[in-house]
Amino acid sequence: MATENKNLSVYDKNKIPNAKELRFGIVVSEWNGEITEALYQGAEEALLDCGALPENIFRQNVPGSFELTFGCKKMIQTEKVDAIVAIGSVIRGETSHFDFVCSATAQGIKDLNVAYDVPVIFCVLTDDNIEQSRARSGGKHGNKGTEAAIAAIQMAVIGK
Predict the structure, then answer these.
(1) Catalytic residues, which ones?
(2) So where does 5-amino-6-(D-ribitylamino)uracil get bound (predicted)?
(3) I need a labelling partner for 143 at 20 to 30 A (CA). Which of 1, 2, 43, 99 fits?
(4) What is the pLDDT of residue 5?
(5) What pLDDT is recorded for position 1?
C-alpha cells in the first residue's frame, strides 16, 4: 500500500506557500458521508492553517463520487477559484460497479485538469473496505484531505 508507512497529514508549513490570497473550492461527495466529511475537515483545516481565509473556501456537495466531475466543472465556472479539491470515497463491493465509478471519476477529474486552467486535486479514496477508508480519513494513516489541500495550495501557486 502506498500509505502504509506514510502519514498523509504531515507537512512542513514552512515549505508551503501562504494561501491568504488564494480561493479554493472543495466539492464533496455525500456518499460514504462519514469518510467524506472527515476528508473535508482535514482539507479545510489544512487550508486555514496555511493562511487561507474562511470566506475564500467554497464548498459544494454532490450525491456521489461520479458526480464530482460536474460539481467541479460548475465550481470552476462560477466561483473563480484558484484550485479545487474533489473529495469522494468509493468502497469496493461485490460487483464491478466499483471499477466503473473509480475509473470514470479519475478520468473526469483528469479531463478537467486538461480542459481548464484551474487545478483539480483528486482526493477520492478507493478502498477495499471501510477500515481502510477510516485509516486514510483521519485514522492511523492520517488524512488524505489534508494532503490534497496542500497539493491544492502548491498547484494554485503554479497556476498563478
Answers:
(1) 97
(2) 31, 65-67, 89-91, 122
(3) 99
(4) 64
(5) 45
Separation between Cα atoms, residue 85 and residue 148, nearest integer Å: 7
Global confidence as pTM: 0.95
Report the run of H or E that residue 159 belongs to, with start and end. helix 144-159
Does the annotation place 89 within a ligand binding site? yes
Encoded amino acid at 91, one letter: I
CB neighbour list of residue 150: distance below 8 Å, 6 or more residues apart: 11, 16, 46, 50
Q: Interhelix angle for 144-159 vs 33-49, to 10°?
A: 50
Contact 19, 155 (CB under 8 A): no
3-state helix, strand, coil in the chain (%, to 5): 50, 20, 30
Q: Is there a binding annotation on residue 94?
A: yes
Give the residues of the chain that fall short of pLDDT 70: 1-5, 8
Instruction: Give the residue from 105, 117, 108, 124 showing the smallest Cα distance to 156.
Output: 117
